[in-house]
Amino acid sequence: MPTPSRFPQGLSNAAPWQFFGPMGTENPFFYHSYADDFDTPILSTGWVVTASTGTAALAAGDGGVVVETTTAAAANFVSIQRPAVGFQPVAGKKLFFVARIALSDIVNAAFVAGLMPITATPFTNPANGIWISKASSTSQIVLNVANNSVVTSTNIPLAALTIANNVSFDVGFEVTAGLTSIPGPAIKASVGPNLVGFLPQSGNGTANSNNRYPNIVSTAPLLTTLQATVLAPVLAVQTGNSSILTLTSDFVGAFRER
Q1: Which of 90, 209, 237, 258 could crosslink 205 through cysteines, CB 3.0-4.6 Å?
Q2: Residue percentage of the chain with pLDDT more than 90
């Protein structure tokens, strides 16, 4: 193991003139952050479960996992969502969402992972929101951006990620502070087998290897309605073939620059 770097005076992400400038640790409020590794009971950590007859519960699994399980009824779904909205896309502020998930049936299961207003119907498009989804009867993963009830959906190339039953993969998106090629902020999606983690450390890749597909950019800039909407993380699964299907989530997080 290499010798650790040592910074006796500490590290700071604050400018010298800012309140936390003299402090030797990073400003803990630089980003509004919510991250759940599903190591504690989900109902006591602030998730609301919405399901007609399905369930959501912790299960045994490396890293802590929560499993959402539908019933065999047609179009039955299960979702978990934070009980209060807390993440607002704002021009000039970066925002990130990421989740690691696995589907028991990659073709017949539909899923939603992203940021929406509080909703009991996550498979119905909200008026405003940003989420990654897959419909049943397909393997196509899609980035969706809703502005004032107009949804822009951008397909992520099938070649970007090969998914298999019960094999975890990561989905995420970033709202940029601004891009020169697109007026105003843009929304970029990423998918991969391991967006979070260092591949060489686990023996699964090499340094600087491309473990994600980062080039999907929404064609719609952030409009006023989306910027005026506060959103909450949501993860949901729906059965598309009247069989019991599951969505297993290892972690989920949302982070917005203050």
Answers
A1: 209
A2: 57
Q: For residues 98 and 35, what is the distance between their CA atoms, to the nearest angstrom?
A: 9
Quickly state the pLDDT bin for 209 (edges 50, 70, 90). low
User: Quick check: 109 and 237 in contact, CB under 8 A?
Assistant: yes
CA distances from 238 to 5, 100, 103, 105, 172 (A): 47, 17, 10, 11, 20
Domain boundaries defined on the chain: 31-257
**More confident: 219 or 6:** 6
Asked whether the beta carbons of 67 and 211 are under 8 A apart, the reply is no
Q: What is the CATH architecture assignment of 31-257?
A: Sandwich (2.60)
Q: In this structure, are residues 88 and 256 in contact, taking their beta carbons and an 8 Å threshold?
A: yes
